[in-house]
Each structure stands twice: as structure tokens, then as C-alpha cells.
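look at this stuff:

>
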Amino acid sequence: MRRSLVHLITATTIALGVSALAVPASAAPVPAAPASVFAAADTDSTIDEATSTDAEITWAIEPAGAAGPDGRVSIRHEIAPGAHTDEFVTLTNFSLVAADFRIYASDGIVTEEGNFDLLAPGTDPVDGGSWVSFTPVEGTVADDGGLVASLEPGASVTVPVAIEVPDEVTPGDHPAGIVAQYIPDGTSDVQLASRVGVRLHLRVPGDIVGTLTVDQVHATWHPSWNPFAPGSVTVQYSAENSGNVRLGVDAAVALSGPFDLGAVTAADAQRELLPGTTMSRTVEVAMWPLVFSSGTVSVIPGIVGEDDVAMSALSGDTVAFTVWTVPWAQLAVLLLILLALVLIRRSRKRNAAKVRAQIAAAVAAARAEDAAGTEPAAGTEPAAGTETAAVDTAADADTAEGAQPAAAQPRAG
């Protein structure tokens, strides 16, 4: 059996989805935190009935006609300001015990994860959810803008729904939903805010605009301390749906260094962004440290599901940014190399000076030894007889030089 259900909000079981607020039974009621209570909104797919751990309560709510469920997965209407339309939803208790449920409408939101949801229980709707009212039928009673239905095991109830659009309302989408929330019997120590629902696609005709704008772009450089690996740039940005219809978001972050060196891109997307809301995203891009880099964040709108939006009504946006991508690791390596070169140069200079000093010392020592081998030692006297012999030799030399040969005597004749 197909049923247009949504994620279950429960604190203790994981059947179709999880998110609930558990409080002591004696405490004042506290609204549950918002959670995704709907199936994927782009396809409006159906899922099985929801289940609560309180006596295994299982139930479903789905679009219907006056005779009961009609097979639709959501309720979709284009309604002019001041107009009225009628609908039906059927609630079924699949449990083996009787159970009470509260049926009410609320405004649609999109969670940070990009899932469609409704305002937290206890929060009054101010947009499309406030246009919805219910007519009590047998087995139901009016309750603060909604109904309380008491169903026996396996029983169903089809409830009339009226949608009244105010006279003064802006064109475009006004997302909403109708939920059935299980009412615990009060005997448990823990209260569970468990609900399932069906989505309302409500559009007011007029000038349809699908515009996305980028804001608050911030880039942060994260260097890698491995000089042979790239670092990364974290880009944080916000995209706003400044139009009046829901849009899908296709985003792209582009980054490059000077002269388009090291260009990289990263894709990002969110399947649905409601009118007037903003999504905040973070994208990380691998990047080489090229000192200074520049980039862009671009958002392109898309049509979601079966929405009727002219392509000419869509417009995106691109915002530029810059970031310093300083190569700290590479600079550290370069500094170490330069320091090593300086130390090597100084070491070589010291070694060369030491060698020169050693050579000079060796030369001086050699000269000293040569001088000691050719000159008499200081303070010594000549050997005995040396001086007399020298004088006699000199006298003999003088006598020989001054002597004249004897003249030959003539013979007597």
C-alpha cells in the first residue's frame, strides 16, 4: 500500500527517520526540534506508515478525495488571492490498539541538510500553513486550529480541508504541510513528539521570479606542511533565494593562481531552497601554494520536481574573491637550504684559513732550519791557531807579490 508519508519524529526508534524531543511527562510541553518529516520533496516519493514505540503505534496520513485516499503523493494548487479550495486527507491507524492523533497544518521549511520539513510543534504558522483549516467529522474534535482524532485499531477517518488565501498575498510559492502527530496516553515517563505528514504545494499566480544571489564569501588558506603536496582553501558562502518560488541550487567554486596557474573547481548543490531563505555552505578545494589566488563562487538556479517555472524567470549570481596562498612549507625548505649553504661556505672558509695557516707555519719552520744549518752559532770562538795561520798566509802572499827577481850579472870577458 502506498502512503504519502514523511520521516518519523521519535526519540527511541529509527523507523522512517529520527528527530524528537523527549521530556518528563510531568514537565510543561516543549516543542520538538525541527526535523525532516517529509519524503524527498523533489520526487514527492511515498513511504510506509510511521511507527511509535509506545505500544507499537503505527499510522499514516495521505491526500484523499471525499471517498478516501486517491493515490496522490502531495497536494498541489495554484490559488489566486482571496480564493478558496477544498481538499481531503485520510488518517489511518494501523496499530493493534486504539490511539489518538492531532491533525494540524504548518509552514514549510528546509533544514540545514536540505530536507523539507515543517515548523516545530507548538510554533504557529504565519504563511501557507495559516491558510488551512479543518472541518470536524465523526471521531474527531476541534483543537486549537486543528483536530484530534480518536481511532480504533485499523480504523481510518477522512477529514475535509479548506484552503483560504488572503486577499493581500504575494505571488509565488507558499510551502506548507498537514501532519498527524501521535498523542501519547500520558502513562509513560517520556513524551514523544512523533508526527508524519503530507506536503502542500501552494502557489499564488503572478510575476514569478527565480533569483539566487551569493553573499558573505570568505576564503581561508590551509597550507600543507608537506612541501611536495598541495594545501587547501576552505570557501564559505551564503546563497539566498531572493525570488518567490522554490529553487534547486547548483553551485561551483573556481580557484586559480596568477596567470590562471593551478586552476581548480569544485561543485556543490542543494536540491531545494525556499523563497526568502538562505543556505550557508562550506566547500574545500585542493590548491597549490602560488602566493596569491583568486576565485569565484557561482550559483545557478534549477527547477524542482514538477514545478512550472519559465527558464526566462531564472537568474543566478557570481561573486569573486581572493586569498593569499603563501607557500610556507616551501619557504621553510628554501630557508633551510640557504642556511645550509651559508654554513657550508663558512665551514669551507674556516678550513681554507686553517690550511693556509698550517702551510705558513711549515714554511717558516723550514726557513728557520735552513738558516740554522749555514751560520755559526752565536757566541762561539774560532779554533786555536786558526787566526795565526790566516795571518801567516796573508804575509806570505804579500812577500811573494813584492819580491823582485835578481838581475843577471854580466860575465867578464
Remarks:
- The chain has three domains: 23-204, 210-326, 336-360.
